[in-house]
Design a protein that fits this description.
Structural class: alpha+beta
Low-confidence stretches: 26-30
Number of strands: 23
Strand order of the largest sheet: 3-11-14-13-12-15
Mean pLDDT: 80
Strand content: 25-35%
Order of helices and strands: HEEEEEEEHHHHEEHEEEEEEEEEEEEEE
């Protein structure tokens, strides 16, 4: 055999061995299936909006002059014909009225402590717990700088401190203090009645608000459901009329109110009518979170904006004076098992994924979407349902000829 033949045979033998080794490595390393581990995932989306508050409002008209003193706080419930404000001939009249309300609150707390000394004070632990609860509320107000509810916390705190004084024997009788306060109250009431020059009464029942902004006569909830996108856009930029000079406040006649706003059109694609969201209003002393429901989504073909109208029913002193205000619309968080949208298959009408079990068997697991995009689906978590996709499942993202109970290894 020639040397050339020997060399050719050697080369062919080496190529054969290399090819064989490569094939065996390919068989060992290659898998026709690729998988992805399932984990839980939380989605939270928000939209920045410019808007205006719409309410059913009735002005409280009063032509009297003098020092005005309100008998109700913003957001408090009033009934038709109830006196909501008094006008005094001097500033001292308002100061006297404020002191009267302080005395009445203290008397109520002292009488409560006095009347229940025989049966409530055997257990000071419950009193201490109540005191701590009230002090925690005060601490919370201090940390946020919002003292709107201080007038509600103070009487309760005083009441429980009085009860503890009796329970611990530091006080046995509040009769003397009650007597002095009753005398002061009687004298102040006599003086105060003589200084009242006029009163303002609620023209209808509802929620009181001392702030009048000029929008009351041009805005209302009647526009909801009838305005176009352009009309809502003008409404958001509405200039108020002159504030009525004879207005002593207003009454909000319906607990339901609306926030109409303009947002970029592309941001409403994942919102729907009836969806529950949260409105986060930015105010001078902090933000306010208000639950809301989307009642209208208005878009037009050639317009880059959209109008959203959201219904709210929360009423308090912070919210009744809101009008033109920016807000963040926060969609409720969605939590579930994240599955790649490209891994979704159908068995009949049932959506699901194929998972690799024990590295050898393909199984079909149901997907129950709670949120979905073009990229992924969040499936509801139910650990008790073995036919549903579960945490840490190996979802097959690449593979051919997949079917339930197929053996692959």
């Amino acid at each position: 055999m020639s040397r050339f033949s020997e060399r050719l045979i050697s080369v062919l033998l080496v190529l054969f061995l290399l090819t064989y080794a490569g094939y065996q490595a390919y068989r060992y390393l290659y898998t026709p299936y690729k998988t992805e581990t399932v984990f839980d995932y939380t989605v939270s989306q928000s939209v920045e909006a410019q808007g205006i508050v719409l309410r059913s409002e009735t002005l409280i008209e009063q032509t009297a002059t003098g020092v005005e003193h309100y008998l109700f706080e913003d957001g408090q419930r009033v009934t038709v014909g109830q006196t909501v404000a008094e006008f005094y001939t001097s500033a001292s009249g308002g100061e006297n009225k404020y002191r009267i309300r302080e005395i009445e609150a203290e008397l109520s707390a002292l009488r409560e402590a006095q009347d229940t000394t025989g049966n409530i004070y055997t257990n000071t632990d419950s009193i201490n717990r109540e005191i701590r609860d009230q002090l925690a509320k005060v601490a919370q107000m201090s940390s946020t700088g919002r003292y709107n509810n201080l007038n509600e916390v103070r009487p309760a705190l005083v009441e429980f401190i009085n009860k503890k004084q009796i329970a611990t024997g530091r006080e046995t009788d509040f009769s003397a203090r009650i007597g002095r306060l009753e005398q002061e109250l009687a004298a102040l009431n006599t003086v105060s009645r003589g200084e009242v020059s006029a009163t303002a009464t609620a023209p209808t029942s509802g929620y009181f608000c001392k702030t009048v902004d000029g929008y009351e006569t041009v805005l209302g909830t009647g526009v909801v459901g009838s305005y176009t996108l352009e009309e809502y856009r003008k409404l958001v930029k509405e200039t108020p009329t002159a504030v009525a000079s004879n207005a002593a406040g207003k009454v909000i006649t319906n607990q339901n109110w609306y926030y109409a706003c303009i947002v970029p059109k592309y941001q409403v694609e994942w919102l729907w009518q009836g969806q529950g969201v949260h409105l986060n209003f930015e105010m001078a002393d902090g933000s306010r979170d208000v639950p809301a429901v989307i009642t209208e989504i208005i878009t037009e073909k050639d317009d880059e904006d959209a109008a959203l109208v959201l219904q709210c029913n929360q009423i308090n002193g912070d919210l009744v004076a809101l009008r033109q205000v920016d807000a963040t619309i926060e969609v409720d968080e969605r939590w579930g098992l994240r599955v790649n949208a490209g891994s979704i298959h159908f068995q009949g009408e049932q959506r699901g994924v194929y998972v690799l079990v024990d590295g050898t068997t393909v199984e079909f697991r149901k997907v129950d979407p709670v949120y979905e995009t073009q990229a992924f689906v969040l499936s509801r978590i139910d650990e008790a349902d073995a036919q549903r996709v579960q945490m840490y499942d190996l979802v097959i993202t690449k593979g051919k000829d997949l079917y339930d109970e197929k053996v692959v290894g």
